[in-house]
Structures are given as structure tokens and as C-alpha cells.
Design brief:
The complex is a heterotrimer of chains A (245), B (59) and C (221). Chain A has 245 residues and is mainly alpha-helical. Chain A has one domain. Chain A is 80% helix and 0% strand. Chain A contains six helices and no strands. In chain A, helix 3 packs across helix 6 and helix 4 runs antiparallel to helix 5. Chain B is built from two helices and no strands. Chain B is 88% helix and 0% strand. The longest helix of chain B has 44 residues. Chain B has 59 residues and is mainly α. The longest helix of chain C has 30 residues. The radius of gyration of chain C is 18 Å and the shape is elongated. The chains are: A mainly alpha (245), B mainly alpha (59), C mainly alpha (221). The interface between A and B is medium-sized, with 34 and 27 residues.
Chain lengths: 245, 59, 221
């Protein structure tokens, strides 16, 4: 299947066709998730209504990790098989993943304030999310730090893989550090057990966020392919312009 | 009416719940809009570059 | 082995002719640590509490400062391309650069650490674990940092970009390095922390030159 889409133009056509469908599915999933989460599910026994933040916080955190894995996978494909769309899909994914990481942090903070009394707590998961945000920002900065976009793509691909290998190490380190410094009783962010009436909106939001990611990623890949075409045309026109002079 | 204001209050936690949903909406919708706008501009730029080439190719 | 030693010797020569670099790294290390008493007040118990963390963070930052120039000179005068074409594998060249970086940055930091531990009122128990942890950690910092130095070759905003790339990757070394010192001060063994630090170093030894060489290759294309 990948080989068919090595041709950017064919991919563009495919993307333009499926995009409206993915958009519709996204709206349907998130819409129903929101409805169930806000109107049709119970408050939590321990955390009261604040548990409703879970319906945006947990999917954001899932997507933050999912996007980084997808990004690293695409970078691996780019480096090993040199599939032309792989680098572009990684570049397209990064801002989406960074956005979700930021959302996980902000909603985590807003959830934490009523629960723990402070806006920020160096909880192991939030801390790991913060480091993940820096990994995303580093990738995006490196990708855009070169005059030649191809150089930026290759360099940041290596960085993404180095970062990916480090994610479990960082997670382990932060867990270690956190158990040393945190008091023993920490309210778990998802509460004791998830009841079915809470699980359904959570899963709807999770899948909805994923299709949202596909939606925006398609738009951004189309943008990257178009931008590449523009660059090529500009270079060609500059060359023919010079030869006619 | 009390139903709505109670709902918005969310047992006193409304000040945390609604900003959470709001920031999620702003970021996700914003990213979508910005991406679409970037794509639109790029497609227009591409057409502009293609158009002057077409008459040259026919020469 | 021969090619490795040649590059190490040559780079050390260059580094020593410039001489000031190692001294400046140590000077920065000292100044950075000295700022903290000014910042948090001179009360001994507070300084003692934060001493391992402060010394380690300053070591991280100092280690990072000299990374930018690791490949820069060779990159600019074209000798990096020549090095890539040599029969000596690029991975070995990168390893040589890592070694030189550690000798000119990590090793001086280890030597300067006891002085700073005194300034920060580190409890006596902490001195030995600090030295051991730095001895295990600073090579890892050099290894990880070298990948970053290679990745930014030819980029526009080298130095500050390098910090953003490398510092998150340094965090595990930081956590276990500080934890080792804190453990001994608290009366516990630092064995687990030191073992983990060793593990990080052993894992980094083959992986970082490999990734660094890949980064250099894309940098000189």
C-alpha cells in the first residue's frame, strides 16, 4: 500500500477524497463523546464533577504519546526506506502531537488544582508529559532550522528516533524520581475504576481525537507536498529565467 | 433556569471544567483552521506559479 | 585503534593550543554554582540540601556549552568531509570526538567538583558518591551531547537549538546522578543508582557514535 502513495500527486488526490469523510467521522465521534461525557454520565464518587475533565485530559495524553510514536515510526521509514511521504507525515504530525501534549498539561493542571490544591504538581505523569513537550519542540525547531528543508527533515528524523528510544528511559527515571520525592498518597488521575458509563464517552473521545489527528495530518501533508512543488517550480523558473537572460 | 446554572456550576468545579474544555476546543479548532488556511494559501501560490508557465509551454 | 588515537591526539593538540577552553568550562561551572548561595541565601542547611542537584545541573550546563564547537571547526574547513571518507569508520571518528570532549570538559568538571561541594556545604558522606556518579555520568553526557552537536551542523541557530535538543535527553543522567549522592547522604546505598548510571553509559557507548555518525553523514551531504 505504501508504494502506491510514493507518488505525491496520487496521494494528494487520495487525501482530497477521503478528507471530508474523516472530518465527518471526527465530528460525529467527538460530538457524541462530548454529549455523553457532559450530559449522560455520572459524577465520580471521589472526585465529583471534576472527573469530566478526564474526557479531554486522558485522550489528549493518549494522543500526545500516540503522535510521538507515529512520528518516530514515520522517521524510521524515512531513514530506512526513504519513502518520500514518510518525512512529510512526521513533520505534519509534530505540531498536532505538541498541541495534544500542551492540552494534556493544561487540562492536567486544571484537574489538579481542585484535587491537589495547586496549579502544578510534579506528578510523574505530568512531568513526563512536560519532557515530551520539549522533545516535540526540539524536533520542530531542528526541522525548521535549515535553509534546505530536506536537510532539516533528515536531521530531525534522527533526533526523533533518538528521542523515541529515550522516552521509556525518561519515563522510568521520572517515576523513580517521583517516588523518592512525592508523598505516598497521590490521587490517581483516572480514579479507582472506570464504570461503563464513563468508559464509553472516554473511548469515543479517544477514537475521535485519533480521527481528528488523521484529518489535520492530511491537511498538513497536502500543505507540505504543495510547498515542495512550489519550491521546485520556483527553482526551475529561476534557472530558466537565468538561461534566457 | 436553575437546571442550566446548576449544570454550568458543576458542583462548584465549573471554573475548572469549562476552561479545560474551552482550551481544548481553542487549540484543536485553531490548529485545524490554521492548517487549512496554510494549505489554501499554498494552493493559490501553486496555481499562480503554474498559470504563467502554461502559455509559455504552448509556444 | 590507530586512527582513533590519531584523531584524539590531533584534537587534544588543538584543544590545548587553545588552552583556555577547559579553563573556561571550569570557570563557568564554578560561577554557576556560586550564584546559588546568592540566590537562595547562605544558610548552610539549605545549601546542603540542594548541593547535589545544583552541582549536577551546573555540570550538565557546562558540559553542554562546549558541544557546539565539537564538529564546527572541522565542518567549516572541510576536514569533516575528509574524515568521513577515510578508511577509519566515521563512528570511530565520532567516538574520538566524544573522548576529546570528555577529556577537556568532563574530566575538569570531576576535578573541580570537590571544591564546589565544599562551597555548597555538601555533607562529607556525599563527596565520594558525587565523584563516582560524575565519573559515570559525564561520559554519558559527552556521548549524548555529541549526537546533538552533529545534528545541528549547518543549521541556523546552532547553540541555543543544541540546548533544547540535548537537555531533555540529559534528564535521566541528572536524576540518577543526584539520587546517588542523596542516597548515601541519607544513609542508604547508592548501588542501584550507580548501576543504572553504568547501564546508561554502557548503552550509550555503542549507540551514540552510531547515531552521531548518521547525523554527521547527513550534515555533510
Amino acid at each position: 500500500m505504501f508504494h502506491r502513495f510514493a507518488n505525491p500527486t496520487r496521494f494528494l488526490r487520495f487525501a482530497a477524497v477521503i478528507q471530508p469523510w474523516i472530518a465527518a467521522i471526527t465530528v460525529a465521534l467527538i460530538g457524541s463523546g462530548l454529549y455523553l461525557g457532559l450530559f449522560n454520565s455520572p459524577a465520580d464518587y471521589q472526585q465529583g464533577e471534576t472527573v469530566r475533565i478526564m474526557y479531554v485530559h486522558v485522550p489528549s495524553a493518549w494522543m500526545a504519546l500516540f503522535c510521538y510514536s507515529a512520528m518516530a515510526g514515520a522517521c524510521a521509514i524515512a531513514l530506512i526506506w526513504k519513502h518520500p511521504l514518510a518525512e512529510l507525515s512526521a513533520k505534519a504530525t509534530a505540531p498536532i502531537g505538541a498541541g495534544f501534549t500542551f492540552l494534556a498539561l493544561v487540562t492536567g493542571s486544571l484537574w489538579g488544582k481542585p484535587m491537589w490544591g495547586t496549579w502544578w504538581v510534579w506528578d510523574a505523569r505530568l512531568t513526563s508529559m512536560l519532557v515530551l513537550l520539549f522533545l516535540y519542540l526540539g524536533y520542530m525547531a531542528l526541522n525548521n532550522a535549515f535553509d534546505d528543508p530536506a536537510r532539516g527533515a533528515k536531521s530531525s528524523s534522527i533526533l526523533a528516533l533518538v528521542g523515541f528510544v529515550n522516552v521509556p528511559i525518561i519515563k522510568f527515571s521520572v517515576d523513580w524520581w517521583n517516588t523518592l520525592h512525592q508523598p505516598a498518597s497521590v490521587v490517581k488521575m483516572t480514579g479507582p475504576a472506570i464504570h461503563a458509563s464513563m468508559l464509553t464517552p472516554l473511548l469515543l473521545m479517544g477514537v475521535g481525537f485519533t480521527t481528528y489527528y488523521l484529518w489535520v495530518m492530511l491537511i498538513r501533508i497536502r500543505y507540505e507536498v504543495t510547498a515542495n512543488k512550489i519550491r521546485t517550480l520556483q527553482r526551475r523558473q529561476a534557472a530558466t529565467g537565468e538561461s534566457q537572460a | 433556569m436553575t437546571g442550566l446554572s446548576e449544570f454550568l456550576d458543576m458542583g462548584g468545579y465549573g471554573h475548572f471544567i469549562w476552561p479545560s474544555y474551552a482550551v481544548v476546543a481553542v487549540v484543536m479548532v485553531g490548529l485545524l483552521i490554521i492548517s487549512r488556511r496554510e494549505l489554501g494559501t499554498a494552493l493559490r501560490d501553486l496555481d499562480a506559479l503554474d498559470a504563467p508557465e502554461a502559455p509559455e509551454a504552448e509556444q | 585503534m590507530n586512527g582513533f588515537l590519531q584523531i584524539v591526539r590531533r584534537d587534544l593538540h588543538l584543544a590545548m593550543r587553545q588552552g583556555m577552553d577547559s579553563l573556561m568550562v571550569v570557570a563557568f561551572f564554578v560561577i554557576a554554582v556560586v550564584l546559588f548561595p546568592f540566590g537562595v541565601g547562605p544558610e548552610s542547611s539549605i545549601l546542603a540540601r540542594i548541593a547535589p542537584g545544583v552541582i549536577w545541573v551546573a555540570a550538565l550546563l557546562s558540559s553542554m556549552l562546549s558541544l557546539e564547537r565539537l564538529f564546527q571547526a572541522d565542518y567549516e574547513d572541510g576536514s569533516l568531509e575528509l574524515l568521513a571518507l577515510q578508511p577509519v569508520a566515521l563512528e570511530i571518528t565520532v567516538m574520538a570526538k566524544v573522548t576529546v570532549h570528555w577529556l577537556t570538559t568532563g574530566l575538569p568538571l570531576i576535578v573541580a567538583a570537590p571544591l564546589l561541594a565544599v562551597l555548597m556545604n555538601l555533607p562529607d558522606d556525599g563527596f565520594v558518591p558525587l565523584m563516582i556518579a560524575l565519573a559515570l555520568g559525564t561520559p554519558a553526557l559527552s556521548l549524548i551531547g555529541t549526537i546533538g552537536a552533529a545534528l545541528i551542523l549547518g543549521s541556523r541557530r546552532g547553540g541555543i537549538l543544541l540546548s533544547l535538543l540535548v537537555l531533555p535527553l540529559y534528564i535521566p543522567v541528572l536524576i540518577f546522578g543526584v539520587s546517588a549522592v542523596d542516597a548515601v547522604i541519607g544513609g542508604f546505598s547508592a548501588r542501584p543508582q550507580l548501576l543504572i548510571l553504568s547501564g546508561l553509559l554502557v548503552a550509550a557507548l555503542p549507540l551514540c557514535p552510531w547515531a552521531g555518525a548518521a547525523a554527521v553523514r547527513q550534515g555533510i551531504e
